[in-house]
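In response to the reviewer comment on reproducibility (Comment 2.3), we provide here a single inverse folding case reported in full, input and output, so that an independent group could reproduce the run without further information from us. The structure tokens appear first.
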């Protein structure tokens, strides 16, 4: 009986040692960052034609990931070309959009007024940016310039 217990104990220890699993913990964040993203940005509106003060300007920006993967972060910003600190538009407030399916479309309207920081007779730049889970990863930036004229 003693030999049977010894044999069973040895077999148990042997089976545990033989079936040792790899318990290496993979940080999901690291695994996620290794994934390649194929982002693209297309500014649909506004176009490059001259805009008028106090008019309503519609914005439409399409963000895509060519393989249908998650779009993590986006930003749409408009600033004065000769004074980039004069930012008249910066949306969305929460840049972390987490859009599944590889498509996110940003639509908004902006009144081109002094109340919104617009200075007439100046060039402005719309900058649309998409990036991965971490800042700067797989980043794509597209810009478009336009002039705002006084009525």
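Designed residues, in position order:
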């Amino acid at each position: 009986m003693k030999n049977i217990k010894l044999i069973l104990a040895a077999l148990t220890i042997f089976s545990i040692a033989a079936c040792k699993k790899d318990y290496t913990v993979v940080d999901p964040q690291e695994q996620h960052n290794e994934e390649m993203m194929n982002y693209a940005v297309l500014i649909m509106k506004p176009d490059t034609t001259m805009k008028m003060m106090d008019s309503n300007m519609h914005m439409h920006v399409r963000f895509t990931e060519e393989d249908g993967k998650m779009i993590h972060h986006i930003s749409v910003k408009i600033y004065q070309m000769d004074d980039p600190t004069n930012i008249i538009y910066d949306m969305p407030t929460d840049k972390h959009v987490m859009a599944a399916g590889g498509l996110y479309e940003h639509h908004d309207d902006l009144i081109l007024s002094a109340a919104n920081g617009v200075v007439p007779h100046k060039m402005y730049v719309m900058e649309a940016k998409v990036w991965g889970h971490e800042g700067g990863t797989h980043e794509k930036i597209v810009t478009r310039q336009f002039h705002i004229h006084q009525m």
